TrEMBL record:
Protein name (database record): Two component regulator propeller
Entry-linked InterPro entries: WD40/YVTN_repeat-like_dom_sf
Domain of life, source organism: Bacteria
Amino acid sequence: MKKLFLVLVFQFTFTFCYSQHLYPEKYNSCSLTTFCLDCGETKAEPPVSFVNELINNFDKKSLTKISGTIEVQILIDEDGKPCLLSSANQSNISSKKIRLQKAVNVTSNWQPAISKNKKISSSVSLVFVFENTSLSVKRRQFDTANQSNFKSAGTPDIKGTDKSRLSKSWTVFTQENSELPWDMTRAIANDLDNNIWIGTDNGIVKINDGKWIHFNSKNTTISAKPYNKDQTQSVREMEIDKNNNKWFVIGWDVYKYDNANWVKYDSLNSPINWARKIIVDNSNNIWFTSWDGVAKFDGKNWSVINKENSNLPTDKTLGVYADKQNRVWIGTFEGNVIIQEGKTMLLNEKNSPLSKAFISKVHEDSKGNLWFYLYKDKSDAAGIYVLDAQGKWTRIVHSNSKMFSENAVNDFYLDEESGLLWITLNGVGVLDYDLNSKKWEIYTNENSNVPSIHCNRITKDKDGAIWIATFAGVIKLNK
């Protein structure tokens, strides 16, 4: 495997001292109970041989098959001894199978963090990226000096449309010019009463007729961040069901708000274990993807679709969708399946794009066409496809053939009223595609007032305005 050590550009804000696990997979072999997060005037630094040692310590067979990322939190004590505290595995191989804990713990000592000329214990967060039999290791940087806010603008990977040719503009809402509690936003939705809901990395906002209403760990049952009790856990996903209930993935758990009461669903009262996406189907069933298969809630009862009971290729699920014909489409990191009349079928027909990339999102339009975003890192098969009622596939193409293979789609929204397909492209910004003229426009933070290259969920209000959550505030299309 190739070896590369990189510094991750994202910065995160935290309070200084704590002793908590950051990620859902927890390891209890570390003896220290008090440490600080990537602290010290001099940060803890790994040995030069760190990546080589990891490769030598990982399970060799798993290394030939693994793809995806594993984020780890490593405790570095005063002597520089590393010890794995927690991890978030988003790869196709389990942490146990690749021997993650052992691989980290037996590596050579680090240079420990130093504060006021004294060696101190600290935790460091790294991202292991496995791709095409190569490994790169990136470091998350934490800004402990700035506690007021966090935003990330970034530099676009793809050049945007010439500024003079852009046909649209945006209103930007930030902590500075509005009541947005945090600029880092990931989720946004429009409810049945035309209220806009925004999920940030520090609380939720409801915009009702221009009034901003706040929900956080101080006025709801939502948990505070373990390392800062004054901040609310990050909202990573949001959906509105057909009864106008609000569903959120916050931290590693799911919350439901029925406009009066909050209910938390976790591994104690549901099969949910680190939910990723929320999907509401036509029958108002709520679906959740996770690394433990797909969970479904019908309002009273929970059920699970997984490798054991439905022959999924793997329990690491990426996308799910139940269409109007009651077919359930599931994307995993090892292939796609469809469940119809209780039968699970692997979608491996070689002429179908579903055999080449993984279902991340599906949308059914008013004509019954199914719109798919298929994900596969660094693969030309990744992109947006349309399956019509006759079974014919059409691909949404751009003149840059690498557009969707080099940069993943975070979300797409089909606005049938205006004939526009809106796309948020990771590392770029916002794209709109006119389905009639076949014209593309790319909005980045270099050619427009879109504030960040990290744009996420998209919604549309009943006045026709498009809203998008970004890592540097929320944007609203000017009509």
